[in-house]
């Protein structure tokens, strides 16, 4: 499977899971108030084994996201199934110089 097809499949999977969870209205364009394009901009920064530094686009999208909502995914099996390291994902706010909720 081609890289772009894998990416599309991963995004479709996330959207399907959110739709099943009852977040149908927001699942079409955002996850936790973060646009799909923003999530994709952040993926290289949370993908092992050698994650890239978060880009300005990633940090900008993350600054508008509901971080507490995103934190709810940290123990989910969904992130690893998409090639995302939850520990790297939890480091993103600090790397983007954004506050991290205390309960995250």
Automatic annotation (TrEMBL):
Key words of the record: Signal
Gene Ontology MF term list: fatty acid binding
Pfam families: LTP_2
SUPFAM superfamilies assigned: Bifunctional inhibitor/lipid-transfer protein/seed storage 2S albumin (SSF47699)
Domain of life: Eukaryota
GO BP of this protein: systemic acquired resistance
Keyword Nuclease listed: no
Keyword Cell inner membrane in record: no
InterPro entries reported for this sequence: Bifun_inhib/LTP/seed_sf, Bifunc_inhib/LTP/seed_store, DIR1-like, NsLTP-like
Protein name: Bifunctional inhibitor/plant lipid transfer protein/seed storage helical domain-containing protein
Organism: Salix udensis
């Amino acid at each position: 499977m081609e890289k772009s097809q894998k990416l599309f499949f991963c995004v479709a999977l996330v959207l399907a899971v959110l739709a099943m969870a009852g977040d149908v209205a927001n699942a079409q364009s955002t996850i936790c108030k973060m646009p799909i394009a923003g999530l994709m901009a952040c993926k290289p920064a949370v993908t092992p084994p050698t994650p890239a530094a978060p880009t300005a686009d990633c940090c900008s999208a993350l600054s508008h996201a509901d971080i507490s909502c995103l934190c709810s995914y940290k123990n989910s099996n969904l992130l690893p199934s998409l090639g995302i390291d939850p520990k790297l994902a939890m480091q993103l706010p600090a790397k983007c110089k954004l506050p991290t909720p205390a309960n995250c």
